[in-house]
Specification:
By secondary structure, this protein is an alpha/beta fold. It contains 10 helices and 14 strands.
């Protein structure tokens, strides 16, 4: 494979179980960058929660890119937005009515990484974690407290695995036809634009850079990585990936605690 772009999920892929990047991963990613290969972090996280890792990996400049919010935003490392898929206020209000009716915990995120929720009892730990990662504050607001044209990047239902298992089918029935619905990890069931998934974003970025998709290497572990692996020329599943990812992979690398990213890059990119 002649590799021109490497696309990496962050959580449980680039990061180990302690939330860090192994020295071997850093070294091999640095080698890829030095050879002119684009290294694109592609995550459900927002801007602030991604750039701490691009800084650590020395991914910088106007010709390097990140994909954030699950694929809804593409920007270069100087902050120029190249691609953005928002959800309108109508969806936000419909989503709010749905979570109120079903007594669910939730948050929504705007294009700037601000986190919004409202509650009559307590704020769940997943919403607090979302706001902490976004590093832009947590606001207690209902739709009527915000402008009528207020738009969001994604809407998130929070809960335990059992709670999300219980409501998942209902969410897909309500929103799945018109929007992209996916579990992004423990505690998070996300709704975003149909064109706001990782696969669509990779297609858009590759086209912008005149890179053939067959020259794209994608590495991931979770359900929200399926779309990006499906479009990539070389599909890599982490050793700790869910079965659906492993089933479509060209190669299953080591897990995230054993530098699976570095092993895959060395095998297919150089």
């Amino acid at each position: 494979m002649y590799c021109k772009m490497i696309v990496l999920d962050i959580d449980e892929t680039l990061l180990n179980s302690n939330g860090g990047i192994t020295d071997r991963n850093k070294e091999v990613i640095g080698q890829a960058l030095s050879q002119g290969i684009k290294v694109v972090l592609c995550s459900g996280r927002t801007h602030n929660a991604v750039t701490e890792y691009t800084n650590e990996l020395n991914i910088k400049g106007s010709n390097q890119y990140i994909i954030t919010n699950g694929g809804a935003i593409i920007e270069n490392m100087q902050g120029k937005i190249l691609y953005k898929k928002m959800l309108d206020n109508k969806l936000y209000r419909s989503f709010f009515d749905f979570v109120q009716m079903n007594k669910l915990h939730y948050n929504v995120v705007d294009e700037f990484g601000n986190t919004y929720t409202s509650t009559d009892d307590w704020i769940d730990k997943y919403t607090v974690l979302q706001a902490f990662e976004n590093d832009n504050g947590l606001y207690l607001r209902k739709p009527n407290d915000l402008p009528s044209d207020f738009k969001i990047i994604k809407a998130i239902i929070n809960g335990t695995k059992a709670e999300l298992d219980n409501v998942s089918e209902k969410v897909h029935e309500k929103f799945g036809r018109d929007y992209f619905v996916v579990r992004t990890g423990d505690g998070f069931l996300e709704i975003s634009s149909k064109e706001g998934d990782k696969g669509t974003a990779i297609i858009s970025l590759a086209d912008r850079l005149n890179i053939d998709l067959k020259n794209v290497l994608a590495i991931g572990d979770g359900e929200n990585d399926l779309a990006m692996l499906k479009v990539a020329g070389k599909k890599i599943a982490m050793g700790n990936a869910v079965p659906a990812i492993k089933s479509i992979a060209d190669f299953i690398t080591a897990d995230n605690n054993n530098s699976g990213v570095a092993i895959a890059i060395e095998k297919y990119a150089f």
